[in-house]
Design a protein that fits this description.
The protein is an alpha+beta fold. It is built from ten helices and six strands, in the order αααααααααββαββββ. Strands 3-4-5-6 form a four-stranded antiparallel sheet. The protein has a two-stranded antiparallel sheet with strand order 1-2. The C terminus is likely disordered.
Length: about 220
């Protein structure tokens, strides 16, 4: 391991031991080389909403500390798997805002947005900023919105690191010989994804591909008779 890799690992481990808010930055550092288009703020909000609805999702501090002591980032992902799944489950709902709005209402009513933890105040402000409409240079009103796809990609990469499968941006080969790029994954159980949303070269449409349609790395493609 080079000195740079060693310093990066130590930085990742420090983030891993800092709770859900630090994990937001850990996922960005591990699973993207870019800024993830503000995904860390949105992911922080999703974590808080999920934990408010189900406090039992908070990872056990001793389990996290043990994984950090072993310098095992995959074990840390495993400890955080229930929380990551819960946050990802919110995003996979067509009415995902309905799962977050009760938490925002709670913050406004109990005063946490004004006097509570910093991340509570930041998440409350972020929710409203993302919905705020402003006039752009073209004269039309628009809003900041949420970095939905970037955040979904971070969570899917973390969940797939534990359950197996192909993370977003992976190139997969089907049994019929075609290749496709994974946009996102979907689950119906606790294991690896059951199917993927993919795009083929030269085709802008998104296609649903079952996991069993994807050939393994050592499988030859099927040939037509």
């Amino acid at each position: 391991m080079s000195d740079v890799d060693g310093r990066r690992l130590q930085y990742h481990l420090r983030l891993a031991g800092g709770g859900p808010q630090s994990r937001v930055w850990l996922l960005r550092e591990r699973y993207t080389r870019h800024t993830a288009h503000r995904a860390e703020r949105f992911l922080s909000l999703l974590y808080e909403a999920a934990l408010w609805a189900e406090p039992g999702l908070l990872p056990d501090e001793d389990e996290v500390a043990a994984a950090v002591a072993r310098a095992d980032l995959n074990a840390i992902d495993a400890v955080y798997l229930p929380l990551d799944r819960a946050a990802l489950g919110i995003l996979h709902l067509p009415d995902w805002r309905d799962k977050v709005e009760p938490y925002i209402t709670y913050l406004s009513q109990d005063g946490s947005c004004g006097g509570g933890a910093m991340h509570h105040r930041v998440n409350y402000a972020y929710w409203h900023e993302a919905h705020h409409a402003y006039r752009g240079f073209d004269g039309y009103f628009t809003s900041q919105g949420f970095p939905f796809l970037a955040t979904q990609s971070l969570l899917e990469a973390a969940v797939i690191s534990v359950t197996g499968g192909y993370p977003p941006k992976s190139t997969v080969r089907l049994h019929d010989g075609r290749t496709a790029v994974v946009d996102s994954a979907r689950w119906t159980g606790d294991g690896a994804p059951d199917h993927y949303l993919c795009r083929f070269s030269g085709d802008a449409a998104e296609h649903t591909i079952r996991a069993d349609e994807i050939a393994g790395p050592n499988e030859p493609p099927l040939t037509a008779e």
